[in-house]
Amino acid sequence: MNRTTILKIAIVLAAVSAFHAAALVARVAVYPDVAQRIPLGVTIGGVPVGGLTEQQALLLLRRHKKFQIPSEFKISAAGKNFNIDLDELSYRVDLETAVSRAAAVGRDKPFGRKLAERHRVYRRGMDVPVQAHWDAAAVRALIELTALRIDRQPVNAVMDWDTKTWSRHKDGQALDRDAARKAILRALALYHGKRIALPVRTLLAEITEDKFRKIDFNSPLATFQTKFSEGKINRTKNLRRVADLLTGHEIKPGGVFSYNDTVGERNRDNGFFLAPVIANGRFEDDWGGGACQPSSTLFNAALIAGMDEFDWMPHSQASAYVDPGRDAAVAYGQIDLKFRNPHEHSVFVFATATQGVFTVSLYSEFKPGFKVELRSEWWGRFFPGEKVTVDKTLEPGKRVVVSKGASGMSAALYRKFTYNDGRVVEERMANKSGDVLRYRGAKRIVRAGPDPQ
């Protein structure tokens, strides 16, 4: 580009600038009070107000449809519509401040800078936003009130173990409070009456009917039974209480079952009664007496079902309802029965205590590819002796047996898996003390009269 061309461009630009300046000066001549008017090129919220006085601009904006604020704020959530009076939010659009800011353009400056700023606005334009105001506490209250109306907790499917039927689950819903607040604040920035949809989260039920639908209740994973005397009233009540607490318990894949955690403390508040328990080789009444029979029954069912990682202890003396090695003692806070579910599906516990038979059945969608046989061995039976206490109220030489005691022994428990492909695997079960299970027995307790000599 040569010097002549550059000079021509400069002359044109100067002429254009001079034209705009002349036009601005001409407007100053037309409007002697131009300093009190809003500069040309200014808009408020997109509405042109250049050349107007503040009073004229305010009147224009108040009549303009863009700033005609509806009386109600409309929202919707989860298919429900809610309207609230905007006055309850202390909502207002601050047109006065916007007009004041627009009128302040090019004021209170030296004449040259004032003229330059007005010239720049005239050429490029300038928009003054309109601010809206509301009560933040009222908005929070609106959100909580809306949540109160639509929040709904999910309902799990529930199994009726008596009939082996189940109820349908229902998913819940909850207002997304944080997202709702942002949506409301965006709408209130300049509300035009459009209904605002607030986001709602779905709360999925933890237990659906699918959890039960695939279980074959005609073919349990394992079942084991032990007998008891219904004539022992309190003990029978305790067995039935345990059955109720066990029934329906889910052992998730990889989950560990704890008898004490599931049944809870055996006391009056938990629905248990006083009944005989073995303590120091003697039968004494205690809360929840008999709770070891359900734990032993469950222990055997879990063995048959292929559960693993067993943590259990035998009693101090062999039990009458199972073979040695196949009992599991429990005492809340001291001795527990635990095992893990190694299968890829949940296992559900079902227990009954009726007609003198305590039954534990384990149900699952899991289909075992094996059968389990349990075998006990016991040996080294011995009698721990007797403990004699002198009772001077008895005749010399007379003996009264207070407790017959029980013989001790050692035992071992074997579990044999026979798989569908013909493989056979037998394991010797071990607890924390090893794979030899020891029953220390109990001494015979005798009261004896004084020595006749």
Structure keywords:
single chain; 453 residues; alpha+beta; four-stranded antiparallel β-sheet; 10 helices; 28 strands
Identify the strand order in the major beta sheet: 13-21-20-14
Radius of gyration: 44 Å
* Helix content bin: 25-40%
- Structurally, the number of domains stands at 2
Summary, kept brief:
With 453 residues, the protein is an alpha+beta fold. It is 27% helix and 30% strand.
Describe this structure in words.
It is built from ten helices and 28 strands. With 453 residues, the chain is α+β, with helices and mostly antiparallel strands. The chain has two domains: 3-67 and 95-130, no CATH class; 214-448, no CATH class. It has a four-stranded antiparallel beta sheet with strand order 13-21-20-14. Strands 22, 25, 26 and 27 form a four-stranded antiparallel beta sheet that branches. It has a three-stranded mixed beta sheet with strand order 2-1-6. Helix 5 (136-150) crosses helix 6.
